[in-house]
Design brief:
The complex is a heterodimer. By secondary structure, chain A is an alpha/beta fold. Chain A has 14 helices and ten strands. In chain A, strands 1, 2, 3, 4, 5, 6, 7, 8, 9 and 10 form a ten-stranded mixed sheet that branches. In chain A, strand 1, helix 2 and strand 2 form a beta-alpha-beta unit. About 1% of the residues of chain B have low confidence. Classes of the chains: A alpha/beta, B mainly alpha.
Chain lengths: 346, 543
């Protein structure tokens, strides 16, 4: 190290002090094992959305919750690599596709709880009870209030119609939300028909696909395009800041099978050390008190049908959700991704 | 070579193994994926994904490569050898973009320049046209932002190269009848080649491994194909196969670069730059203003404007997000960055030293392997390291149970995995600057030191380390800043409660809340300024 050098001016003392602190801090970081009744959560849902809930749980029960967030791919890989020595008791993630993957990779275990069965509707959970949807997110049409007649909107399929040529904005097909949407369409319409629709979307694009829904909504407002597909809470966030934002929301496929919905959800890991605590946390998340916070934090819809949604959301009116079990999205996700590649949807 | 020497040489060579192993392990995991064959997925990729992806990667690589070399060398030359208004300021200022992660630069520029951004909105209002300006979310936009983000590697190294080389060789060129322009092309450029090529290869490796920036620009590259195959098609095996192809290409490039560089000697006498300031070329009026304008343009686009935008956004979200936890984020970031930097620079010094002692193929190959982690996508590298370490961990846990110990050793819960993965990723960054300077130490200097009866360790400590100081210091700074900006490895391997500033950026950007990501991004820039300023101070005080 340079510190041995006689000419080193201000670096050497700095270095020595740093080395001492660094070693001490590393030791401290290593030596903090979990207590027996702690619950450890791996979450791909954002920390700022989850933390208030976990704090509330700790307040109510006195149980400490340790939280580690990361993206879903990394979390599932980490969980799989850790095997039976994983510290994680609960996995929380967004999108049914990811939850289905976790179950498929044998990372979760079934939970038979009367509370969960009563709180979470059947189409929002795994048929084998390995995971439970905790909030519902609808992916539907948004449009420019200035340029589009509401009556001209109808369904996802309609966006493939040539009348929308050069007027449609979409987010990248790499986002799991779009993969799930297309997967659900495949489940309903079959592969050839879905592919034709997606090709129609691509032909109608006004510009390259967007990296996120918020940018898409802004592009509609700016006049780059007129209609698009987003998760409703992204529009909710914008409307919370600017109530008169010139982009409106339209519930897709109300004449047909209903608007595409997906979930963010949770499951107990296969090798949970604190299974009882993990189940208790899931039950808490599905309860009336928690559902408010869970959904309102992100302007999503509560999965528990007895709980009311936030006021911004209510202003969009009630809608008919598609009732196909959301786990279909996981089953067909890989096929949907390939379909979108074939259709040239970037 | 005596017996003792031979013994020592073998030992030195073997000591490189653990360093190479850090990247060999993940590579082995990645290569192991070839056991699984998925002809169907491959056929799909070949038809629908790879053609675009290969073309994009190639164009991006060429475009960014040329641009960073042009920007880095021109700016480095101006600042090191010429005199013009603002030179002293730009000398420091042009290093600052290093502190700005390229994904942050990307989302700021897209926010400013996209159709719905301020500039284009104003343009439409003024011109009355509904047609936008050229799209920023494009291959061209991505190339420009990568160049703005990565040119400091070349700049930093080229500047160092020109300064070390000094005016003496240029004067010699002049006495031989070459004009200034010829002197630059025929003397300065070739002689500083190890420097700027080291910088350029760092920039290209970083580019090949990038995922965050290309996603923002929606440009499909090899890395996005890897991630899509993994996360969209759930085929980790094919994703790994793709990753191993990428690694192969990088290895090839590294070997080619090494061959090109290895044929020449770059050794030169030490004190050439002692009084460089007095000899600086005074640029004439319009030339001088052009030089200032070029520096200012790059600095504004790569640093000043983005940071101003970040400031505005951070101001808006600070009330909501800024709390006491930020002290912990900053502390974790700095600790992690400095620990990794220390480790990596020691390892880089050792790699460069052993390679100098034994310039043969065997050591060369090990060095190439040890430094190629920089071109592996972070998530691939961390999974590749995590899987074997988790396996070892489980064996240890079982052993502990058999022995009746109550607390099993948990490697993966500690900082060890994170540090190892980060070290593997940034080895090249620690190695390249040291190696560039090492090439300039003459064999005579070494022989003289040995002749004075100094042992090998003493030669390393008392001759090399002092002479390598500028290289060691650039390496320390670069690794420190890189670790601060690093996202995928930190995200996946960090222990509980070890959130850093980059993790905060992830939390916000993953939900498309770019404005709220400004606050942690700005903190990264502020913390990054510390080592950057230290570096500049140090390089000015060193001989």
């Amino acid at each position: 190290m340079t510190s041995t050098h006689s000419r080193s001016s201000f670096i050497a003392p700095l270095f020595r002090r740093w080395a001492a602190t660094a070693v001490a801090a590393t030791l401290v970081a290593v030596g903090m094992p979990a207590m027996a009744d702690d619950i450890t959560v791996y979450s791909a849902r954002n920390e700022q959305l989850l933390k208030p809930l976990l704090d509330r749980f700790t307040q109510d029960t006195g149980t400490t919750v340790r939280l580690l967030t990361a993206n879903e791919g990394a979390l599932l890989a980490r969980l799989a690599a850790e095997g039976n020595s994983t510290p994680a008791d609960v996995l929380i993630t967004v999108d049914a596709g990811n939850l289905w993957q976790a179950a498929q990779k044998d990372l979760l275990q079934p939970v038979n709880s009367a509370v969960l069965a009563a709180n979470i509707p059947a189409h929002l959970k795994d048929p084998a009870n390995q995971w439970f949807g905790m909030s519902v997110r609808a992916r539907t049409l948004v449009y420019s209030k200035a340029r589009v007649e509401r009556q001209s909107l109808s369904s996802y399929e309609d966006l493939a119609d040539p009348k929308w040529r050069g007027k449609l904005c979409l987010r990248t097909s790499k986002k799991v939300y779009n993969q799930s949407l297309v997967a659900m369409m495949m489940a309903e319409l079959g592969e050839p028909k879905t592919e034709a629709i997606v090709k129609g979307w691509v032909a109608n694009l006004a510009t390259d696909v967007f990296p996120d829904d918020t940018a898409l909504i802004k592009a509609i407002a700016a006049g780059q395009c007129q209609v698009g597909l987003v998760n409703t809470y992204y529009l909710g966030r914008v409307l919370n800041k600017e109530p008169n934002f010139p982009v409106g929301l339209f519930w897709a496929n109300q004449q047909g099978s209903g608007t595409h919905v997906n979930v963010s959800g949770a499951g107990v890991t296969k090798y949970a050390k604190n299974r009882a605590g993990a189940v208790k946390l899931l039950e808490f998340l599905s309860s009336d008190a928690a559902q408010h916070i869970y959904a309102d934090q992100d302007l999503e819809f509560p999965a528990n049908p007895r709980v009311n949604a936030d006021s911004v959301i209510k202003s969009w009116g009630s809608f008919k959700p598609n009732a196909i079990n959301v786990s279909k999205a996981g089953e067909l996700q890989a096929a949907a991704t390939r379909l979108m590649d074939r259709a040239g949807y970037k | 070579m005596g017996f003792e020497d031979a013994h020592w040489h073998r030992w030195a060579r073997m000591s490189l193994l653990p360093l190479a192993l850090l990247t060999l392990l993940p590579l082995a995991v990645v290569l192991g994926s070839w056991r699984v064959s998925s002809p169907e997925v491959w056929a799909h990729l070949r038809t629908y994904v790879l053609p675009d992806v290969l073309a994009n990667t190639l164009i991006l690589g060429l475009g960014v490569g040329l641009l960073v070399v042009f920007m880095g060398i021109s700016l480095g030359w101006l600042v090191a050898v010429c005199e013009f208004p603002g030179r002293a300021f730009f000398n420091v200022a042009l290093v600052l973009p290093l502190a700005l992660p390229s994904y942050v630069l990307a989302f700021v520029h897209v926010g400013l320049l996209d159709y719905s951004g301020g500039l284009q909105t104003a343009w439409r209002a003024l011109s009355g046209s509904t047609q936008g300006l050229p799209a920023v979310r494009s291959l061209g936009g991505a190339t420009a932002v990568f160049a703005l983000s990565l040119f400091p590697y070349v700049y930093l190294m080229a500047r160092e190269g020109f300064m070390r080389q000094g005016v003496r060789s240029l004067e010699a060129a002049q006495t031989l009848g070459l004009n200034r322009w010829q002197g630059f092309w025929r003397v300065a450029m070739p002689m500083s080649r190890p420097w700027w090529m080291a910088g350029a290869s760092l920039a290209l490796m970083e580019l090949l491994a990038d995922f965050g920036t290309v996603s923002i620009f929606n440009v499909d590259t090899f890395t996005t194909a890897i991630y899509k195959t993994w996360l969209g098609m759930f085929d980790l095996a094919v994703a790994s196969q793709l990753a191993s192809l990428l690694a192969g290409v990088v290895l090839l490039l590294l070997l080619m670069e090494k061959r090109a560089r290895g044929r020449r000697r770059f050794a030169q006498g030490g004190q050439a730059s002692a009084a460089l300031g007095a000899y600086r070329i005074q640029l004439k009026s319009h030339q001088a203003w052009l030089a200032s304008a070029w520096c200012a343009l790059v600095w504004l686009a790569a640093f000043a404007v983005p940071v101003l935008q970040l400031l505005v956004w951070a101001w808006q979200s600070a009330a909501q997000d800024l709390d006491a936890r930020y002290w912990a984020f900053v502390w974790h970031t700095m600790l992690l960055a400095s620990l990794t930097a220390g480790l990596v620079v020691l390892a880089g010094l050792w790699l460069a030293y052993v390679q100098r002692l034994q310039p043969g193929r065997r050591v060369g190959a090990m060095v190439s392997v040890a430094t190629m982690g920089y071109a592996l996508p972070g998530m691939v590298l961390s999974i590749g390291l995590f899987i074997p370490i988790a396996w070892v961990d489980q064996q240890l846990a079982e052993l502990a149970q058999v022995l009746g110990w109550s607390t099993p050793l948990l490697l993966k819960g500690s900082m060890a995995v994170m540090l190892l993965a980060l070290a593997a990723r940034f080895m090249a960054v620690g190695f390249e600057p040291v190696q560039a300077v090492m090439q300039r130490i003459t064999p005579h200097q070494e022989q003289a030191a040995r002749g004075l009866g100094l042992g090998r360790w003493q030669v390393l400590r008392r001759l090399f380390v002092p002479l390598l100081r500028p290289g060691l210091f650039s390496a320390l700074l670069l690794v420190f800043v890189e670790v601060m900006k690093e996202m995928p490895i930190t995200l996946m391997t960090r222990p509980f409660g070890w959130d850093t500033l980059a993790v905060r950026v992830f939390e916000m950007t993953s939900e498309g809340m770019w404005e709220r990501a400004a606050l942690p991004s700005l903190c990264i820039v502020l913390v990054g300024l510390i080592p950057v300023v230290l570096l500049v101070k140090e390089s000015e005080s060193s001989p």
